[in-house]
Amino acid sequence: MYPQVNKEQNLPSAPPSYSDSMNAPKYEPYNPGNIPIGHSYNAPTMGPPQPTRVIVVQTEPIPLPPLGPKSVQLTCPTCRSLVTTRIEEESSSTAYLCCMLLFIVGCFVCSCLPLCMDNFKNCKHSCPSCGSFIGIYKP
Ligand SMILES: [Zn+2]
């Protein structure tokens, strides 16, 4: 005589039926921001990356001839043309210093002499073609 058993309890748990599996919550992939699946999200780009090229313009310095109190002929480093420099004379700071000293000493008449003397004047050389400053001659 077999003990009466509950057949339903002894049976291994049956796999869920077809209708159960359809009702089960479906797996949804993580989708932040409601981005349409299947379309790869492309960040806004500014076109393909451009290789940065550093162009180094090497200009060989033009050796300047020694500048004197007179105009000299040289190649302008700016416009690279053979020019004769334009001279602008200006009184150097030494001239103003001597002028002040003479004024303090009392030689009012002589005080303006250093400003008139060529030995106290700087000669600014500039290009007559492009007007760029080339150099200065200090006596
Ligand atoms: Zn020039």
List the defining traits of the structure above.
single chain, alpha+beta, two-stranded antiparallel ribbon, 4 helices, 5 strands, binds zinc ion, zinc, LITAF
Distance between the termini: 137 Å
Percent of residues in beta strands: 15-25%
- Contiguous low-pLDDT stretches (5 residues minimum) are none
Helices and strands, in order, run as HHEEEHHEE
Protein structure class: alpha+beta
Which shape, going by the Cα principal axes? rod-shaped
Structure description:
- The chain is α+β, with helices and mostly antiparallel strands and 139 residues long.
- Helices cover 19% and strands 17% of the residues.
- It is built from four helices and five strands.
- The strands form two sheets. It has a three-stranded antiparallel β-sheet with strand order 3-4-5.
- A hairpin with a 6-residue loop joins β1 and β2.
- The radius of gyration is 47 Å and the shape is rod-shaped.
- It starts with 6 loop residues before the first helix and ends with a strand.
- The model has no long low-confidence stretch (mean pLDDT 76).
- The protein binds zinc ion.
